Amino acid sequence: MLDYLGSLNPVISVFVTSFIPLLEVRASIPLGIVVHQLSPTLVLALAFIGSGLVPVLLLPFLDGLINWTKGLHDKLGEYAQIFFDAKYRQHSETVNRWGSLALIILVAIPLPLTGVWTATIVAYLFGIPYRNAMPAILAGALAASVLVTLATLGGLKLAGSV
User: Fold this and answer.
1) How far is it, in rounded angstroms, from Cα 50 to Cα 16?
2) Do residues 152 and 33 lie in contact, with contact meaning Cβ atoms separated by under 8 Å?
């Protein structure tokens, strides 16, 4: 898959990679700066816009999508409900205490299983209103984009490539 993304137009490659779960800005920014040698400012903007589209496109339709998925098979719906209930119990105290700030932090820390996809699902799961979730997720996406860009440039400088 990474070979395919690397073979695309560099701008499209960075943009599409930033939209992919688990990759997001953690992969798209190094791809753009290191592999495609694009301007760090352009790469940051592409990665932020690409990852920022996830909650814009997904959050309004997540309820219907999850209900549709649950309806595909009785066991699938049952397992999904067990999973959501467990995650809700596990994290409800933190989300209730921190609210939208929890979403910012969840997205801003560029580690696996954090990011806009996870935060969008968390916002849905905890019933965080769209008007509160969107700015928080986008703020976190911008912070993560800046952090990954700085880390990538710092790594290149340490390696003597800049």
Assistant:
1) 7
2) yes
Q: Closest by alpha carbon to 23, among 129, 151, 144? A: 144
Name residue, tokens 């903007």.
45
Residue with tokens 């205490």: 97
Question: The dihedral of CA 110, 113, 118, 122: what is its sign?
Answer: negative
CA–CA distance, 71 with 121 (Å, rounded to integer): 18
For residue 57 the two structure tokens come to 């496109």
Among candidates 2, 16, 28, which has minimal Cα distance to 149? 28
Within 10 angstroms of residue 50's Cβ, the number of other Cβ atoms is 23
User: Of 130, 128, 148, 157, whose CA–CA distance to 18 is shortest?
Assistant: 148
* Per-residue tokens: 5: 């993304």
Chain segment 118-153, per-residue pLDDT in tens:
899 889 888 888 999 999 999 999 999 999 999 999
